[in-house]
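Margin note: ligand = uridine-5'-diphosphate.
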Amino acid sequence: MHKVHKALFCCGSRPELIKISPVYHHLKTAVNISPLLCNTGQHTDLLTPQLESLNIKPDYQLDVMREGQSLDQLMERLFIQLPGIFDQCQPDIVIIQGDTASALAAAIIAHKKGLPIAHIEAGLRTYDRTSPFPEEIYRQNISTLTRWHFCPTEKARQNLLREEIQEDRIFVTGNTSVDMIMKIHRKIKNKPYATLLPRKGDRPYFLITLHRRESQGAPMIRIANSLLDFAKSKPEFDFILPLHPNPATSHMIRDLLGNQENISLITPLPYPQFVQLMAKAYAIITDSGGIQEEAPSLNTPVIVVRNTTERTEGIESGCLRLAGTDKTPYYMN
Ligand code: UDP
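Resulting structure:
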């Protein structure tokens, strides 16, 4: 009889769940590994609808989110709640993804308990600690604690080598969100639009998502005003914006964009429907990290409304264009 090793995934945000999904399901088929999931609850509203569409059921559930809490308060709740889960589960390995507070907290606790950490999406860097914030700081710290680093690209591997991470602990595996999107796209590409999408006929449309913490406040207002001008100047296009539930952005976006006829503000979509919308969009305007990886796989161009990006491969390939957050809409003419 083989010993069954417990692999504990710790995550709590929508993109983490989407990106661990192919690894989790693959490990389900292994005879001597038992994948388990701790959902920290960092994105309750966004993550719950995704669990069903990705066919994942958490084994452990935390409750760390409170309205209006600071990053420090979130970290404090993670540090209070996560160690008990580790004690209950007794994992052999902890698997984390990306650069969230949940990932960093799990890495620190696993390290303190002497557990090896595997990090998916390792090595992404802007080397600007303010952008994306706090993700750049979190991922740099995670790399110092990780045993096995799974990089999406050679460039990410080079970043880790420069940081003197041991070469034989770094593996270039490709991007799990690309695996995921190709799988979903094959399944749904010929299906009709979901009925909940507010589409009038077959007009071309821009798909928009906005949520970055470092853009909240003045940059987000500049982005929203630019979008409003753009939508007014392009009445032949629709603009579809699934609103991130974070009240820090959603109230302002509703106020500024809610009355423009060709802009539709909708609730966040389950992943398969969102993939379908991305695939058929004329272009995507976003500050999301994950969408910068997914859209090029669907051949949909992306305007990135951020000042920096760690997905420089997409810029070099011509699929992404970095537009910044100032109101300089050169791409809108
Ligand atoms: N996404 C989704 N439904 C939506 C909007 C986004 O399933 O209505 C997915 C998207 O395909 C990508 C992920 O959510 O996989 C991106 O999440 P987000 O932009 O919140 O986070 P980031 O990638 O910036 O960390």
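The radius of gyration is 20 Å.
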